[in-house]
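Subgroup meeting minutes
Present: P.N., E.W., G.H.
Scribe: E.W.

1. P.N. recapped why we're keeping a running log of single-chain structure predictions: easier to compare across weeks, and new members can see raw inputs and outputs side by side.
2. G.H. added today's entry (174 aa).
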Amino acid sequence: MNYPYMPKSTALWLIENTALSFEQIADFCGLHELEIKAIADSEKHKIQGLDPIVNGQVAREDIVRCEADPAARLRLFDSIVAAQKAQNKKGVGYTPKLHRQNRLGGVLWIVKNYPELTDGQVARLMRSTNPTVSSIRNKTHKSYSNIHIQSPVVLGLVSESALFDAVEKARKKN
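Output recorded in log:
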């Protein structure tokens, strides 16, 4: 399934500017309905709404159609879907500042779930360094006690296909 860029910002804009149901917004943005409700209930938003119409991700007519029919679902433009597929093939290239702090948790997740990967493979996947990966693997990293283990695929730090390709290569070598 393909989701819009910056799904929480897009969800905030859809909540504030449309009559779509939480279920429709959650389905379009790839978030859970409870996350949508939490965004809607929040007094202060730490995020800024992002207009998917201006960004060329969805048409105004599609939103109007979905507002009229609660069973209807929004769809990304085919050009956005194609761009995301091309991006997933080459892997994620840029790590936003927001996710950089999560990189260590992603490294820890990979090390725990795929111990067959070498430090170099993990470093390449996560755009980190061999010493960082090694210190996390050995539990000697200076921030080890503060690392929150999280899937890097869910965080968008690495594509699922790139992770599985690396695991496949490592398993073939062993």
